[in-house]
Amino acid sequence: MSTTPNNEKSDKAVPFTTTEDAVKAGHVPANGTSATTSAASSTAGVDLVNRVAEKAHATIDRLATQATPAVQHLQKSLEDTNELLHERADRLRTTGNEWCDGLRTSVREHPLAAIGTALAVGLLIARLTR
Question: Does residue 65 belong to any structural domain of this protein?
């Protein structure tokens, strides 16, 4: 059993799953009376690490299960908001185009009034910026 998920890379050492793995790695002597004591303490350490890893996996799975509905609700809300913003942008674009068309029509119907209005607005802006 590995403590690192299959889809993640980790440079941390994977804990030993059995005493044989610890012996192969050279962390526990293979023979002698001290080997028995060392193997027993190593096995206890391995078991502790494995239990902690299992509990951590269970907790992460539980949290992921609880978070899934909230994430889906958030995603749905973002999609709805995106759709609403696109609709409003289209409406504003349409309104702007209608105003421009109306202004063009007014200028074509009354060109002298349009020139006089532009001159008056220009003089007003010039006085305000001095």
Answer: yes
The residue type of 74 is L
| Residue 42 contacts residue 22 (beta carbons within 8 Å) | yes
The pTM score is 0.44
> Which regions of the chain are under pLDDT 70?
1-40
- Kindly state whether residue 104 falls inside one of the protein's structural domains: no
Q: Is residue 75 part of a domain?
A: yes
pLDDT at 77: 96
Q: Are the C-beta atoms of 19 and 42 separated by less than 8 Å? A: yes
Cα(77)–Cα(92) distance, integer angstroms? 22
Query: Cα dihedral sign for 57, 10, 5, 54?
Result: negative
CB 39 within 8 A of CB 19: yes
Side-chain half-sphere exposure of 47, counting CA atoms within 13 A: 6
Range of the domain at 27: 19-93
Q: Strands, E, within 4-125: which ranges?
A: none
